Amino acid sequence: MMKLEAVIQPSRFESVKDALREIGVEGMTVTEVRGHGRQKGHTEVYRGREYTVDLLPKIKLEMVLPDALVNRVVDTILKSAKTGKIGDGKIFLSRVDEAIRIRNEERGENAL
Amino acid sequence: MRIAARPGLLQGSRPLTKNMQESPTPLSVLGPQADAERQKIRQEFEAGTSARDTLHAICELADHHVRQIFGEVLRVQNREPEGLCLLALGGYGRRMLFPYSDLDILFLFGSERTEQEFRPLISEFARTLWDLGFRVSSAGRTLEESKRIEEDNAEFHLALLDRRFLVGDAALFEKLDEKVLPGSERQARAFMLGQLHRLTRDRLTRYGNTIFHLEPNVKDSPGGMRDYQATTWLRRLAEEKKGIRNITAAEEELCASAVDFLSATRCFLHYSNGRNDNTLTYELQEAAAERALGIGDGVKRTPAEWMRQYFRHARTLNRHLLRYLEQRAPVPLTLRQRLRNAARVAKYDVPLSKYFHVRDGLLEISDLSALSDRAITYSFFAECARTGTPLSREAERCLGYVLIHPELPPKNTEMGWEMLREILGSDYPGLALRPMQRLGLLAEVLPEFALIDSLVVRDFYHRYTVDEHTLRTIEHLQELADPPDERGAHFTQLWKTAERRDLLILALLLHDVGKGMPVENHVTGSLAALDSAAKRLKLSSEERGEIQALIEHHLDMSATVQRRDIFDPATVAGFAESVTNQERLQRLCLLTYADIHAVNPEALTPWKAEMLWQLFVATSNYFSRTLDRDRLRAHDEVSLLGRIQASAGGRASTEEIERFLEGFPRRYLAMHSAEQIATHFGMYRKLSEEPVGTQVAATRHGFVLTLLTADRPALFATISGVLAGWGMNINKADAFSNGAGIILDTFYFTDLHRTLELNPSEIARFRKSLEDVLGGKAALEPLLKGRESARRARTPKVTVPTHINFDDSSSAHCTLLEIVTQDHPGLLYEIGSVLARLGCNIEVALIDTEGHKAIDVFYLTAQGKKLAAQKQELLREVLQGTLS
User: Fold this and answer.
1) ipTM of this model?
2) What is the CATH number of the domain that holds A18?
């Protein structure tokens, strides 16, 4: 099992979600986050006051996937989240040792 | 109510189950008996027995088994009950025991010694009841302990108010009931009232202080059974005297009917869920509606219809609770509250003062007989909205009484737009609209709103009914005057400076009305509702157009924030194009803020609030920086041309009107109504006779000067100078020019010395003065003499640093100059003079103030071109020197 964390543009979230649903991925955790990588922020002046937007809004998706599905999900996210501009985000993958469904204590991929 | 058991009560006991099994009525017999009885009660309830009888039967069953088991346990132990008795408390005590509710039982001991002796017996008793399917929640006290008030256990003392003797030593109970508790309860009355207030307020706050939850908890939500119980306790603790603010027979009847309905619902929930779960879920709403639960006529309802019944009853219980909470406030007001209340005391117009007054920070009715006159009733609400003084619950009750009694025929029932907009445009519209909705007056004024009254629309995100969501949007806006958390911080200034808030609030009242109509897209329905409301209220076409745009686009800003890249200039430009102007952007931003906020308490995350703000700032800047890009092509404005022609009585040709309009920035249309533009055109036609056309009119907050003339050097500076010379403070201004070099300047100003206000004849002299100075017949300097020294003598309370910014990229033809500086009378004259002296021509100007801060944007050219870098530097230097 792999844990996938993807940080994407908020504007791409609906497309990513729909694309994932099409390939059968329905469960995910979504968080509104702020941050920056290479895409630095900018300063906006409104009525004489400077607003520095150094942490840009992003959406973070988290999901744990069976190994067989990982590549497909990664491809889907890449396709649907990409705009080609700096700030499109990143995908992180890490191995997961165990998953347990609290309701019935199922374990492993059955619990996903 | 959970009663905290004293530690140790059920510990260290010796199991006696074996002995019980040997008794003449063993568990093996009692268990099935109890189950059969429960089943029978349930079947009878499902067959139509009233909730009242069902609760009574459940209570009887519990009483029977409590007494039987207690007797059995004593028999096995070979004891007499002397020195021990059992009391039913809380809901069990008042015989309102729901199918899966706990049995709250108090073990009362004569002394500590008897407590020690009976402890094993009690443990066995409780365990046996559990085995028979009764959930026992027990506590134990000696008679001596019962005299003390446990300050950390107010729930116990409140439950004790509903005590009822069950079994055991009757003399002991009599001693407690007649000798011990009356004295201690009297002494602790203030404490218990205070605690009851605290517990109730905490509970109401936990549920967002509203009955209108999509899936309410029929016990604990506002309007639930707990409200009824808290009201009963409040009345008992306050030792309500008959005849004084008492409940009328009709109100009592409504309450009883509400209690019956909610009891039936709660029974149904317990039976359906098989446990003490009081959440009225969507699924169970459907099932309840199917069997017309609590209505009794057997006619199947839709879930929405049945929920309306539920909310009607919940509203009755909640209204009574709130009235009693308000009347019996046991805690003295804090100094802050007292000062706040004192500050709220309204200055009444003389004719109104005999109808109402302020007491303890609440608006009370002085003359009940006046209430049948709706004009007076609405003036109460206008006062609430204007001053932020809430209507007292007692006043609301009086209004409610008058509204439903036909022997008091209402007068002046028609509420015109003028009165309604006074309420909607005030600082606290929610304070008036909330009670107006509870009383049915909002639906009287705006019948379209009745379509969403108590309407449950199921979706994953919304927590409240549609009407509740709508009222919350308005309350979230009025909160912006003093935002309760960081999410509102950016939007405060937008709310404070928003013009025509009445249009924004009316748009909010109607934005979701379509959800109550059989239409595919609720926006279509809401627009249809606006059509009928606009006709009835006789809104002008501009007012209607603005509200229509707000309703039509009410989801756009939220959608843009969530689905578009708001940092992409193309997104901002596209969004700005759909919004069309700055004023609408401000209203739309406030509407979006409120609409998201009112979905549920967590919906407007700081993240979303920040995104919304970023889009607002980017779009606002886009408007300021692209003002001269979008110029009017008069030929395309067919409808406007027609209206101006009609206003001119057909005396003007289309070509003449087109010549006037051609080349004005499009923003000119956004800032002026067709009627105003027609007036401007009238002034334009007279230019040959009057080279300087002026008009001065009073507004809500001051005056507005409109001036139309041919362009000339230092025009803007001269007008500003005359205004400064007359002691007028310019708050806002705009200066536009058409393609033929005709200048139209509008100045909104306050009359610092009330010269024009107190001497209306001075308006003519003021206009003459302007015309003379601009026409070269009089000099400006003598006017300004004296004003300068007065200005220098005043020290500003807040210091605003000066920012001067040039922007060459936003406009194709002009250099933008943005100045943010300390506002003071004559400021615009100073800036205008510098610009004129350095040969800068003002193509467009937007002048605004925000408290002590002046925010001015000028589109400048020099000899028809953008300002050279050198000139910009010189201008910056001179302006810095002048303004600092």
Assistant:
1) 0.76
2) 3.30.70.120
